[in-house]
Amino acid sequence: MKKLKKYSSVALPVILLVAATLFGAIDVQAQAHFGTLCQADYQNNWRTALPYSWDRCGWFNDELNDTDIFDFYWNLHGARTLYSSCDGCAGMGADTVSLLYTNTHGGAINDTNARLVMWDQNVRALTNTDNWRLGDESIRLSILALYACETLTSDDSSSQMINRWRNTFRGGLRMALGSHDKLWDGPTTNECGEDFADNLQDGDSIKWAWFDGNGDWYHDQDVKVVATGTNESNCISRKNDMKWQNFGSFTRLRDGDVGWFCSSRIDNN
Amino acid sequence: MSTGKNSIPAKPRFGRNRITLLAVVLMLATTAVLVLNSAASNENSEPVSRGATRQDQDTAKMKRSGHSDYLAGLTSKALREGFGKDSVLVLEPLRGPGRAVTARQLRALVSRSDRPFGPRLTGRDLKPARFDDRNTAFVGPSSRLKVSADGTKFHLRGNIDDQREIERARRAGKIEKDELEKLGRGFIDNALREFVRVGSEESIVYLGSKYLRDEAISADGKQHKDEVIANIAIFGREVRGVPVVGNGSKIAVWFANDRQPVGVDVDWPVYKVTQTRQNILPRERLLERARATTVAPGGSDRAAISRFECGYVDLGATKRRSGIQSGCAVHYSGRHDDGTPWARVEYVPAGEQVMPDPKWPLARMVAAGKSMNTDTAEFISFASTRKAAQTRPRLPLGGIVRPKPE
């Protein structure tokens, strides 16, 4: 009887150990770095407020932090250079993480730049003027996610869209996620960041994580993703198949490697 | 460590010391067992979670071609009449079936040999993904399913990106709005009848279409393709002739160009009409409340209203609470002086007496007797549950970090 008790006291930890090893083997995945740059109010009210930005970004961080490595969350006070000359600055620059999530106002149409509005009055971060080149410093950015209007528009022309983003992608950036028209700020779209993160964690493709996380059957959410490829089919494959769990296995395309741009978008225009 | 994701060495999840590893593993195992047990026991018992010229011009300018005539008509009606009723009976959303029940039903349906969801919405290879307090997900090589905790909301995606299927369906071309409505209604009536219950005083209304488009351009700009990949029919609900506005009571059915279903989204609770009557503000007072909290219904120099829709406000599965009350959704947008667009939406309560709702900031505010405009710092603080982001340090934390081999 004593022996039996002794065996049972040993058996339980052993069973737990085996179960845990199996559980661990299935569950453990590599983690990636992410950072967040957001703004809700603007200096001297120079731009319309985005009251739900702090929840959208905060909940994005809370969710993705469950599985991956949270590096920073800053507002957009004096943040223009974090996308350009200071993109490799530790603990704040775009290139120091694999995924950068940003929520602010954006624009692009009939302009040579895509722009992100900073808190500072009259200051915008500009893709070409600021010489954005993402994906070639520090950890190297792979995914730039912009909850901002219009930054990926090709309404003026597809060539204009490419010209606004060409130099940014030449650094090796793998995907840009954003909008070709409007992304709405409101009391239900405040969950978009969290839903996007949740979909990434589930193993959805990055494209569908963005579409299903931000898409909405009541509001007129205009979602778009852009990727690059050496040729058309390579571009489509990268756009459709890249996941948060495998993006590192897709070769970085820099400078002359980029032969094609491809995109998907959903709208009701 | 090969990450399969990034060549930067990943932060190890476990320490290297074997004793520490053993302890962590044991803790994980215990936690896993507890979590799984807890999840299994709770799956079925989760509570339900959480006629001015200028107006017409602005609205017409901002109307989207995908909106149905019904949807566009809601704005004209609300601007003209206000809510359009003196009172409504408050709705009570019934407890959902729970995620386990809905997921089981859906997986069984998409796996049936007679394929009620069509050949491209299948569940053969779906495997459980993550489980958290908000939803449960299943992911397969060619399909995905996600179900909300209360089981009233789900989305299912088929092999929308399958290039051979896209090629095969290409010739049929885009599906126009009217045909989409017919296809969508047919799918709801047949394939979705277990998940979309329509009460005797309810009706399904067509809200319009959306399209998934793919574009590819050579870097020199000489080659260019743009095509519709999927066509999406969107539906909503009316209860006793009152539309439900917000994310709740919505259905989207996705069709490939060859008319095969490739996706579906449902957020469809069962409502009980209570005997609690809520009196509605008359038009002028309702518009005044909208103006005070958002923007003048006639628009302003800086903003135009693109949609102004009144009805029952159901903010969707994650925000739905006991007591669905009246309100108006105000969608307003504009362009700043440099052309930068902005877009905001708020739900303005329409009741004379407003029930507080923690997930609906303006209902909470009005119920508390407060008034403020949503474009103010005061409102940002009021509406935010998370802290504002802080300003970064003036100097780089660690200087420029050089790239490591990839």
Number of strands of chain A: 10
Low-confidence stretches of chain A: 16-28
Mean pLDDT of chain A: 92
Portion in strands of chain B: 25-35%
Largest interface, by Cβ-Cβ below 8 angstroms: which chains and how many residues each?
Answer: A-B, 122 and 119 residues
Q: What's the total count of β strands of chain B?
A: 14
Radius of gyration of chain B: 25 Å
- Note the gap between the termini of chain A: 77 Å
Number of helical elements of chain A:
6
Strand content of chain A: 15-25%
The order of strands across the largest sheet of chain A is: 2-1-3-7-8-9-10
Mean pLDDT of chain B: 86
Q: Would you list the SSEs of chain A in sequence order as H and E?
A: HEHEEEEEEHEHHEHE
Spans of chain B of at least 5 consecutive residues whose pLDDT stays below 50 are 1-26, 28-61
Question: Helix segment count of chain B?
Answer: 9
What is the ordering of alpha helices and beta strands of chain B? HHHEHEEEEHHEEEEEEHEEEHH
Sheet with the most strands of chain B? 12 strands, mixed
Oligomer: heterodimer
Major sheet characteristics of chain A = 7 strands, mixed
Radius of gyration of chain A, rounded?
21 Å
Distance between the termini of chain B: 13 Å
